[in-house]
Amino acid sequence: MFLKSLASLAAVAVAVSAQAPNWGQCGGIGWSGATTCAGGWVCTYSNPYYSQCLAPSSTSTKSTTTTTSTTSKSTTTTTTTKSTSTTTTTSTTSKSTTTSSTSTSTPPASTGFVGVSGQKFTLNGATYTVAGTNAYWLAQYSNADIDQAFSDIAAAGLTTVRTWGFNEVTSIPNYGAYYQSWSNGVPTINTGSTGLGKFDYVVSSAKAHGIRLVVTLTNNWSDYGGMDVYVSQLNPGGTHDTFYTNTKIIAAYKSYINTWVSRYKNEPTIMAWELANEPRCSGSSGSASSACVTTGATINQWASTISAYIKSLDSNHLVALGDEGWFQEANPPTYPYAPGVGIDFNLNLKITTLDYGTFHSYPESWGQTANESAWGVQWIIDHAASQKSANKPVVLEEFGVTNNQATIYQSWLNTVVSSGLTGEQIWQAGSNFPDGTTYNDGYAVYPGSAVYTLIEQYAATLKSRG
Ligand SMILES: *[C@@H]1O[C@H](CO)[C@@H](O)[C@H](O)[C@H]1NC(C)=O
Ligand SMILES: *[C@@H]1O[C@H](CO)[C@@H](O)[C@H](O)[C@H]1NC(C)=O
Question: Where is the CBM1 domain positioned along the sequence (predicted)?
Fold first, then answer.
């Protein structure tokens, strides 16, 4: 242990030429990159899997580390590492030319917008790793709970959280956040403290914890209102898929989008806008027009129009569809490769105003319960192949099983890493709040559990893969 620390001290002394960039990773289990920071910044311990270069003045209360040790976090190591990094800090600070004025309590990671280069995400000139989770419920909790959720997520080394930017209501709820209320076909956007004002807090807390947000703007499902409220209010009696074609509905949805996008257009904490959660042709009524069902053209056309609209308002943020990644194969091996729901993943990936592709994996809901692990592995491999042909990032942005989670997630996450798939976001990391745990839909995993630890480990692995 002691020798190892001496060895890493020696490595620090010679490794001056390869320094991690501001805000970049500089240590953690499995990390083999630079362990010192450029410009006098300080390599700061975040958790066993992740240390990050932070501005000197923002690091006073945390112990710093330059170790890439894959061994345990013993007291001896910690103590030794602390004194090591004190030395490092002093010496690197003395040659600092760019001690940042952005530090103090300014959130570490929320400078610069997440961008795309080929099949990777970028941030401030480095690769940005999407290793994250979904927390659709954030705005429905108290501010203290929101802080706790982001704190747990950040401590796990996750970078990215997908959350809901919609809640359509037809009567005002007496708790939680809602963003649009409807009466006789007239929508009213709630910009107050129970609406967008509340979402401002979600953004500020994410920012304070160095987390980026993917914000989804409507729902295929009727949870939190979604598309079916637009249809019932503006095209009563219409099928669910008229959401994608009815001109009054498109205008109303654009108006809603305009309010959100204009409000946060210059906010780097938001990584991406997402057009919908799991858009499909059929809705609660189970019926859809045949044009929507038999081809991917309806949703493809809609996704082109809406994503281009967002880009016309906001060139800072990425835009994604939020679909489940269905293919339209002539001889589909299983249901999710078959035409029918109205999504053609490869066609949608060609839309120039969509910056990256999304897909989900729920074999239990998709008739693959007997073959979950292998089916999911193939599903990931097939989307990674689409990613390569389109030369755009693709993210497994929701995945879940309710049985054998650790074994199945490990096989899937190994496949994410080995296939070169750009990123992943589990459905869903939960938190333990003072007044109870976050809602468990059967998929939630909580800090301290084996599956949660697995997610932490793969976040570190993906960061080091790049
Ligand atoms: C779309 O939403 C409806 C409920 O409104 C549901 O019946 C249908 O299965 C959903 N499709 C998905 C999974 O996107
Ligand atoms: C399980 O899924 C894989 C990948 O799709 C497939 O190759 C295999 O034939 C499936 N096995 C069974 C028993 O369905």
Answer: 18-54
Do 296 and 155 sit in the same domain of this protein?
yes
- Same domain for 39 and 165: no
- The answer to whether the CB of 62 falls within 8 A of the CB of 45 is yes
Which protein residue has the closest C-alpha to ligand 1 atom 3? 283
Pocket test for ligand 1, best of 227, 243, 278, 341 (most atoms within 8 A of CB): 278
The answer to whether residue 168 is catalytic is no
The whole-angstrom separation of Cα 442 and Cα 439 is: 9
Shared-domain flag, residues 175 and 287:
yes
d(CA 29, CA 40): 23
Ligand lying closest to the C-alpha of residue 378: 2
Full residue range of the structural domain in which residue 44 is found:
24-54
Mean pLDDT (10-residue bins), the chain, 466 residues: 29 47 71 83 70 62 32 29 30 31 42 95 96 97 97 98 97 94 97 97 96 96 91 94 96 98 97 97 70 84 98 98 96 92 96 98 95 98 98 98 97 98 98 92 96 97 95
Which of 458, 366, 363 lies closest to 410, judged by CA? 458
| Euclidean distance between CA atoms 420 and 197, whole angstroms | 39
For 199, phi then psi, to 5°, come to -65, -30
Confidence (pTM):
0.78
- Indicate if 120 and 42 belong to the same structural domain: no
- The reply to whether 270 and 374 lie within a common domain is yes
Mind listing the pLDDT tens digit for each residue in 24-33? 777 776 677 8
Q: How far is the CA of 334 from the centre of ligand 2 (A)?
A: 9
Cα-to-centroid distance, 375 and ligand 2 (Å)? 6
Domains of the chain: total? 2
Q: What is the pLDDT of residues 44-58, one digit of tens each?
A: 775 555 677 777 764
Same domain, yes or no: 141 and 247 = yes
* 162 and 41, same domain (yes or no): no
204 lines ligand 1 (CB under 6 A): no
Pocket of ligand 1 contains residue 280 by CB under 6 Å? yes
Pocket of ligand 2 (CB under 6 A): 333, 371, 374-375, 378
Respond yes or no: is residue 278 known to be catalytic: yes
- Domain contains 8: no
